[in-house]
Specification:
Layout: H1 10-24, E1 28-29, E2 35-37, H2 38-43, E3 55-57, E4 63-66, H3 71-77, E5 85-97, E6 104-116, H4 120-137, E7 141-147, H5 148-156, H6 162-173, H7 177-186, H8 191-201, E8 204-206, H9 207-218, H10 223-241, E9 245-248, E10 259-267, E11 275-279, H11 281-286, E12 292-298, E13 315-320, H12 327-339, E14 344-347, E15 356-363, E16 366-372
Parallel strand pairs: 1-5, 7-9, 13-14, 13-15
Antiparallel strand pairs: 2-4, 3-4, 5-6, 6-12, 7-10, 8-9, 10-11, 11-12, 15-16
Helix pairs in contact: 1-4, 4-10, 6-7, 7-8, 8-9, 9-10
């Protein structure tokens, strides 16, 4: 059955298109339960977007939770694959506190995970699919990329304790160079290293402009990470995404879970990222997996914010009938219009605030046109 495009919302259109895209690259759909044992999320609470979780007690006495995240479930229920990669995509609802309403909301999440023998091609493919996912939603998008390996090495050079490192990480995400210098000074970090990481936090721009700055700031350090970043963005440029890629070191995730390349996707007209992802080998290790992994999630619910031109009419034809109307004649009229592709509504009275192209009224002879706005 063909689904008319104009009957779908922005997020529904995106979900159909994204599923088709991922299947073209050999990703199979991963289906899962709506809930997991609560303990899974307690052990990995820092990985979650929100610590607020809806819980309930199962019939066997176990404390369960409605899924606030998909990735943790996939890792928990997958097997280690070392020599090859498992490629899965998902289209699932998660349950978390909405930033806009500050109350629990059922949120559609679409994404993919590539787990196993991750090499630079695997990383490129996932980033390419992230860019293509954004392109499906809008031509006016930007994919911001960072590398946790560079950030981790630069922070390690500061020789700070864990709490101070977390403060520095937070400051990098906020591009707060002044606070980075302040925290480093309070904790006795070397001034030159502090200035370097403060400068790194402010780096943002096109690949050609930014890569030389990264090499200068890192001073010959982080060569492997820089080389990997350089190769990936070069492949993305060759694939036609050169003008859609920016390097931005404020794109940063928890260093306890993420390593390597991390990224975030933006659409013009939506103030926050609609796509987020990265490599999470450290999370895999924490969950006793030997394999490596990279993936991303798209948040179609945010697409509701896209300005969409409101339709001129709610319905093509509105038919008004009464108790004396011939119901066979009415059903024939409705069928004829729907078969011709028109939308039609039959009512005894005109609903308030409804916009229609054509108003018809049933009488003993059939239907007569009362109003025509087409």
């Amino acid at each position: 059955m063909k689904i008319e495009n104009n009957l779908l919302t922005n997020d529904e259109k995106a979900v159909f298109a994204l599923r088709s895209l991922y299947e073209k690259y050999g990703y199979s759909q991963y289906k899962m339960s709506k809930f997991e044992e609560y303990d899974l999320y307690v052990r990995n609470k820092d990985f979650l977007v929100s610590e607020n979780i809806i819980t309930f007690t199962d019939t066997n006495g176990k404390l369960m939770a409605l899924k606030p995240d998909v990735t943790l479930s996939i890792i928990k229920n997958s097997k280690d694959s070392i020599g090859y990669t498992q490629k899965v995509y998902y289209n699932e609802n998660v349950y978390r506190v909405s930033k806009s309403t500050e109350s629990f909301k059922e949120i559609m999440q679409v994404g993919l995970e590539c787990i196993g023998n991750i090499d630079n091609y695997s990383i490129y493919e996932v980033l390419s699919l992230a860019a293509q996912s954004l392109a499906i939603i809008s031509d006016d998008f930007m994919l911001d990329i960072s590398h946790m390996g560079i950030i981790t090495d630069m922070i390690a050079a500061l020789e700070l304790d864990h709490d101070a490192e977390k403060q520095i990480t937070k400051c990098i995400g906020e591009k707060n160079a002044h606070q980075i210098i302040s925290v480093c000074k309070e904790n006795g970090a070397e001034e030159e290293c502090a200035k370097a990481i403060a400068e790194l936090a402010g780096i943002y721009g096109s690949v050609d402009d930014v890569l030389p700055k990264i090499k200068a700031v890192t001073g010959g350090k982080c060569e492997d990470s820089i080389s990997q970043l350089e190769e990936i963005v070069s492949l993305l440029a060759s694939a036609g995404f050169g003008d859609k890629i920016h390097i931005d070191f404020s794109v940063i995730n928890d260093m306890s879970y993420y390593n390597g390349i991390v990224f975030k996707g933006f659409i013009n007209g939506i103030p926050e990222g609609v796509l987020s992802g990265g490599q999470y080998d450290k999370l895999m290790k924490k969950m006793h997996r030997k394999a490596h992994a990279i993936g991303f999630a798209v948040y179609p619910d945010l697409l509701e914010r896209l300005e969409d031109s409101a339709p001129d009419y709610d319905i093509d034809t509105l038919i008004i009938y009464d108790e004396q109307s011939d119901l066979k004649m009415l059903t024939d009229a409705v069928k004829m219009m729907t078969v011709s592709g028109k939308s039609v509504m039959a009512q005894k009275e005109i609903p308030s605030k409804i916009k229609y192209k054509q108003l018809l009224k049933m009488n003993e002879k059939g239907v007569e046109i009362v109003e025509n706005n087409a």
